[in-house]
């Protein structure tokens, strides 16, 4: 069983589906069940959530589908995140802020479990690096919730190498979920992907399509990148989306890219990237277009 | 006895008094004795010096008071720094520069001992990272001066993570004294505070009031921060100074902030921060005001 | 014999000669032999190459000299680099890019061996950090080529600390070849030189004269640095070139600076730096001129 195996070593599907926009999809429960089934049929068995997505309401929409079709849960891995206190109508904070105190992490994890109608999450990430994180205390929270069977693995998202190292020293983290795309390449140079490789941990990658900007932005960088990618995609006979996922997947850290699309065709385009062998020249041609200059 | 305990593990008072401006205070010896007594009565038992403060004359002013009231020394921890060759009337260097060679460190430490009328300094810091530092040789200097009983602990100030790691590999350092304030937050992101936590070392913090700019600067950042802090301070019924210290103390590295004030009321306001429980929302509201944008 | 000793521990001559411009020197084979002999007589026994220098033709020019005067090879250490696919007339890549796959590294190393008429290279460096590097696979390539006797030591060039650490974890690297000069001081602050010292590895330094810009550039920084260096050089009775090498050599990482000159007098000026004791004040005066402000 996936959950049992995950307890020893985290394994996600090579493409992960992200649900941060599910509230905008306006799907009925049955449509959501169907969408999940189609994802599973494509081999997308890992689903990436966060407590705050859709103004704290996204998880529950997904959970309704799991409740309506109980057979689905056993075929998937559920990932969620917590640690952000986001202003919303019910939460009138003065400013958005982070909170990694035991109480809040526990509250949010248990809420995610209820939302998703499940007993356990395969993976929970601290969404953003909290300057006020007490690493030892947070590790204790991790250990307790793991002991209670509520969370199988823990990780972080958007953490620098030193932030990661600090928490990893107290509790073995499974991943760092980072942004990487043909339009956003900071992770190539800031050491986070090097660190992941050094630790043998596969990063998750958010926004491999730069949140859609890859297709729509008209700034110089996007125009350059799109032109280069269209040339490569045409030669390889694949879509721009497939190429973007192939570009991310080409990284030696063996990343898990997340697709945020509702369209089943979009999922299919992401999965198609698993069959693309992008050569170094094409990879660097896209890098070059993104930077606006050649490699040194 | 404090000194004996310090030999095994460095312990400073939760608020440290900094003497870098003592030469501007124009206090008689008896007034200095009285000032020290008042600090001690407030629980401020650690005093932060540097060889170069007050154009190399600050330590001696403090030392005169210790000489006049010999009972004081046993109730305090003395911290000093060396490693900068600062131009002055007696020192006509072409440029300010650093020197961490054995001869210079020894000379300056022994001068600090004489200035402060003491046999031992609880802690000596290398004031700035010296690009020409020979880490192995400097560690040998540390070890020799420790063996001679002249210095109990060694540390550094303003060192990057890699500079710290290099010297720490050769001699166990006790602290990195860093700048942190509501107006200067680089240490939150450059890894130095993460490193301190990973090593279990409590950082010292200089200029928690941004050298007074927090109260007086009229630039956009300072105006924003002051407005936010005045709101929080009013709600908590504390002064702006107390809030600034509470903001620094809230960091999980358990920092030792340094107050540089002559005013006993100022010392009291710093110490009052030890009783303030700043919540994460207020802490991040100040962060947000300082950055001019919310957390990501 | 040098080669045998190098197999256990890499040792280069304190000044290294770089051949990246040899194709511009227009020397006959006998002139190249004479140039090498003069370098050796000056104690410059290490020669720095790369597969791509001179549009992939530099190594062969040097190799012709070794072939013509077979006694030379045993008196020197050969360094080369690979990993860049540079566009050229024979190589019509769409963009310059990197390639650290086993096939390409092997092909280039074996080509370097043929070009240089030698059985073994004392040191081969990965020329630039390849984002697509598979560290474990590359380490395996290193091990295989070492086992075959083709390369004694491996290193990298221009790698960040995390890039270095990743590969070093898989195969012990001998050096990181970095840029450092009075006009380019990034390596002082980016951690690479700290890392080298922490690992006890001596860095190689390229462009200690900033590629000649030190003498010719008219921008503000170069003018300031030249003025300061001329003052120091005049006082010490040395040339600007000697001073630049002395400035680099003063760094505690014990760097191996590379001279790229054809002129024997230029080699002599570089070697003369080994007898210069630059004091910290002069070193920092040059730093100050380069930065345009004093040390903090």
TrEMBL record, chains A, B, C:
Residues 14-286 form the NADP-dependent oxidoreductase domain. CDD domains: AKR_BsYcsN_EcYdhF-like. InterPro entries: AKR_Detox_Biosynth, NAD(P)_OxRdtase_dom_sf, NADP_OxRdtase_dom. Pfam families: Aldo_ket_red. It comes from the Bacteria. Gene3D superfamilies: NADP-dependent oxidoreductase domain (3.20.20.100). This is Aldo/keto reductase. It comes from Rhodanobacter hydrolyticus.
């Amino acid at each position: 069983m996936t959950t049992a195996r995950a307890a020893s070593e985290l394994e996600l599907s090579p493409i992960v589906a992200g649900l941060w926009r599910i509230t905008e999809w306006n799907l009925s429960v049955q449509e959501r069940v169907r969408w999940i089934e189609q994802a599973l049929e494509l081999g997308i068995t890992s689903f990436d959530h966060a407590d705050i997505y859709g103004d704290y309401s996204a998880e529950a929409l997904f959970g309704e589908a799991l409740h309506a079709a109980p057979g689905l849960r056993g075929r998937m891995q559920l990932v969620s995140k917590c640690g952000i206190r986001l202003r919303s109508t019910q939460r009138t904070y003065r400013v958005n802020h982070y909170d990694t105190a035991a109480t809040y992490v526990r509250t949010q994890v248990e809420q995610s479990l209820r939302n998703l109608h499940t007993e356990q999450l395969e993976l929970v990430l601290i969404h953003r690096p909290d300057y006020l994180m007490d690493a030892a205390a947070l590790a204790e929270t991790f250990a307790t919730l793991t002991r209670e069977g509520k969370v199988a693995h823990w990780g972080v998202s958007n953490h620098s190498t030193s932030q990661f190292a600090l928490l990893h020293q107290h509790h073995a983290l499974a991943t760092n979920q980072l942004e990487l795309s043909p339009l956003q390449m900071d992770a190539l140079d800031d050491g986070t992907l090097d660190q992941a490789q050094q630790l043998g941990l596969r990063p998750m990658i958010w926004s491999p399509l730069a949140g859609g900007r890859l297709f729509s932005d008209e700034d110089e960088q996007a125009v350059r990148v799109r032109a280069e990618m269209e040339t490569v995609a045409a030669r390889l006979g694949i879509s721009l989306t497939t190429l973007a996922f192939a570009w991310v997947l080409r990284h030696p850290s063996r990343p898990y890219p997340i697709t945020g699309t509702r369209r089943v065709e979009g999922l299919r385009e992401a999965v198609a990237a698993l069959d693309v062998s992008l050569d170094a020249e094409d990879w660097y041609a896209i890098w070059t277009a993104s930077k606006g200059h050649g490699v040194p």
